[in-house]
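[worker-b] picked up task from shared queue
[worker-b] task type: protein-ligand structure
[worker-b] ligand name resolved to flavin-adenine dinucleotide; SMILES cross-checked against name lookup, match
[worker-b] sequence length check passed
[worker-b] input payload:
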Amino acid sequence: MAQRVSVPVASDSAGCSSCQPRIWRPGAQRVSRYDIVISGAGVAGLWLARKLAKLGYCVLVLEKGRVVAAYASTRNEGWLHCGTYHGGAIPVRDIALRVARQTLDGYRQTLAFAPEAIEEKTTQTFALVRSLDIAEVESRWSEVGVPFERITKHEFAGLVPEVRTKDVSAFFRVNDVSINNRVLYRKLIKDAARNGARFLGNAGIQSFDGMRANVETPSGIESFEAKMFVCAAGFGIREFFLTRFDKPVDLALRLWKSHLIDLPRVARHGVFCLDSGEATLMHHKQWTIAGFNSDSTAVTEPSFDTVMPGNVEADKVALERMLRHVDFTGARPRACIKVDQDPGAGIDVFVAADGTSYPRPQLGITYGQPLPGHLWMLPGKMSEAPYVADRVISLIQAQVTPTRAVAGWAGKALPRIAKRPIDGYPATDTASAGADRSARRTAAGERGK
Ligand SMILES: Cc1cc2nc3c(=O)[nH]c(=O)nc-3n(C[C@H](O)[C@H](O)[C@H](O)COP(=O)(O)OP(=O)(O)OC[C@H]3O[C@@H](n4cnc5c(N)ncnc54)[C@H](O)[C@@H]3O)c2cc1C
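[worker-b] inference finished, payload out:
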């Protein structure tokens, strides 16, 4: 059962200090103003809220649930990726390099912000290669700057006697770590709140009236105006854009179910294999969370409650391949849902040896602005959330000026920054074509585990 972080519900909903309520008279509906309203307090929404609040934006986070991060953000392996897995495992080199860079950036940001979230400081993590091209894997890691050290089979076997070495062709000491993501989320919330962000639990936008959102809250319907709305609602994003606007917007988001097996701790050190179909072991004190490469099945409902027995059996076999001894008596298989955007027919298809083709989930970040004033974002991985937040912030900064006062500035609002000469140039076809291309590239995402 995932542990949960309580939502610090705003004591009132009057907006942050400099965004005063615009209308408030007895009997009238109260409208509070914010620069940015974020829907969803998973890892993506929390990173975005913290970063925007620090930049002086008045931020409100609306979380539909009673607690925050109740879904993928706390039900994952807690593996803070360092670019190692995706840099090596994604079949197409340039996609692998891009995802590895994004992930490494998120890794560095996460550890710089919350080093105390690392679950264990004294254990190590190892990556194994069975049949992948070792020189190619090493060259990708080197190009991106993923830290690694190749070690001998003998050294590995001495350090991690629990793991089989047969059929493993290369052993690496790497920097990936397991984190207690609740520690990270608590710190993000506290830091965002310290910088003026408000959090409202049990609250979700029901409808829009221009840039005013009507929100169902525990105390009734409230209205919030914002200069920009960001939907960071994970599996809820698709339904949000399909139902909240006059004209439905279909973002073609897909849901994928994959499985994890929680086991009483099976090894001292963390280990993951880069090859398709193999297992990964991240430890959290007395528990090991085992994950499985390529265990993703397209589903239509975001159900975390039921597992697919066939997938779990295949996952157990992968664990037996990895571990010398595995006792499933205390094992708890569970499901987790990943969300991605369909990159288009035929693009992300895995062709099996027998010629059968399957769509594959993408792992990269995706985000976009389907309507004026409305953005959405998916991190792909918890580890990529700071990176995608930065991309989204660059879109926000081009359109919304922060209004909150900052210490050290005498005026009520933020000091205005002089424009660069290029900011005053008229938009050119080339510039907007470039922006479109990069938006399409972003939407195309990446594939992998
Ligand atoms: C099996 C599995 C293992 C994984 N392991 C890892 C890992 O070890 N490391 C890693 O980096 N990544 C991992 N990932 C990926 C990672 O967990 C996700 O990419 C990430 O948690 C997604 O975060 P999110 O904030 O976008 O979504 P979510 O965590 O789903 O958060 C969305 C939030 O929005 C809320 N919400 C929904 N609808 C609304 C609405 N209408 N209004 C307001 N709020 C709403 C939800 O209640 C929720 O709190 C894993 C994924 C899977 C499937």
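[worker-b] attaching auto-annotations
[worker-b] Confidence is low (pLDDT under 50) at residues 1-15, 20-27, 430-449.
[worker-b] releasing lock
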